[in-house]
């Protein structure tokens, strides 16, 4: 009996959530998205992928120009890490 009551409660709460949601927002979650939304998502993904690739290239260039590309973190001493941090800062990559 508890299970039946719980199931009814969950079903009712899901139906209420659907009613409260904006109908335009519901379309965003459906598998049949309008073409303009699909195109916008694809474009955003391409931009994000391009930004990631550019960042990766920037990091690799900083490492390779300063002979850090073949070094492992476990083998670098504190002064090496501080030097690497300085190089990243000079390259426009800042850590918090």
Write structural notes for this entry:
- The chain is mainly alpha-helical and 96 residues long.
- The protein has a domain at 37-96.
- Helices cover 73% and strands 0% of the residues.
- It is built from four helices and no strands.
- The protein has helices spanning 2-20, 23-29, 35-65, 78-90.
- The longest helix is centred in the middle third of the chain and has 31 residues, at 35-65.
- The mean pLDDT is 78.
Based on the model shown, name its key terms.
elongated; 4 helices; mainly alpha
Relative helix content: over 70%
Coarse morphology: elongated
Oligomerization state: single chain
For the largest beta-sheet, the strand count, sense and barrel status come to: none
The tally of beta strands, per DSSP, is 0
Q: Which class best fits the helix and strand makeup?
A: mainly alpha
Uncertain segments are none
Beta-strand content bin: under 5%
For the termini, the CA-CA separation is 54 Å
Helices and strands, in order, run as HHHH
Helical segment count: 4
Give the overall average pLDDT.
78
